[in-house]
């Protein structure tokens, strides 16, 4: 039986084409009040990026005993130790071989990050998305990745390990999506592979639906 890693070369093109169609349809439904133009298109691309990232994390998990990279020691090609240190990039390095184009790890609107040109070594500088170290088995509601421009109690969340508490008021900054007159928003992917655009006022409810006891977010 072929592993998920072996299957990726044969399915990537079909998967991406299907995803693009789905995301364009979703964008037309979910983003009607965002001004059309370059930033609107970039938001759609960011959704496609996280859809692909969620897919390859799932495939890596299938190839490694149903565990994500941050749940596996570096001696077994995981990223557990570096995640404990608060460093996000190794989680994306772990799945880089499943991706032909490492530029998907950077959101097009993220001016503070640099797109990598190869998979040799990714750093936080080459990643726009956080990972949730406490993803639960409740796949429909469990956040897997998200745009890094979170804010807690009106202050931007800093790079490193962020531990969510229901005492916090969560929102997005305007750094990645929301430099216009509309309310800022961000993109989230979930363990079951779907992606969502979420306005800032929706974040508290989304976080409170998480099935895990803690939510440790590793922010690049």
Number of DSSP E strands: 9
How many helix segments?
5
Mean pLDDT comes to 83
Task: Tell the overall outline.
Answer: globular
The CA-CA distance between the termini, in Å, is 36 Å
What does the radius of gyration come to? 16 Å
Q: Main sheet: which strands, in order across?
A: 5-9-1-2-7-8
Main sheet record = 6 strands, antiparallel
Number of structural domains? 1
Describe this structure in words.
The structure is a single chain. By secondary structure, the protein is α+β, with helices and mostly antiparallel strands. It has one domain. It contains five helices and nine strands; from the N terminus they run ααααββββββββαβ. The strands form two sheets. A six-stranded antiparallel β-sheet has the order 5-9-1-2-7-8, with helices on both faces. Strand 3 and strand 4 form a beta hairpin. Helix 1 packs antiparallel against helix 2. The protein is globular, with a radius of gyration of 16 Å. The termini are far apart. About 6% of the residues have low confidence.
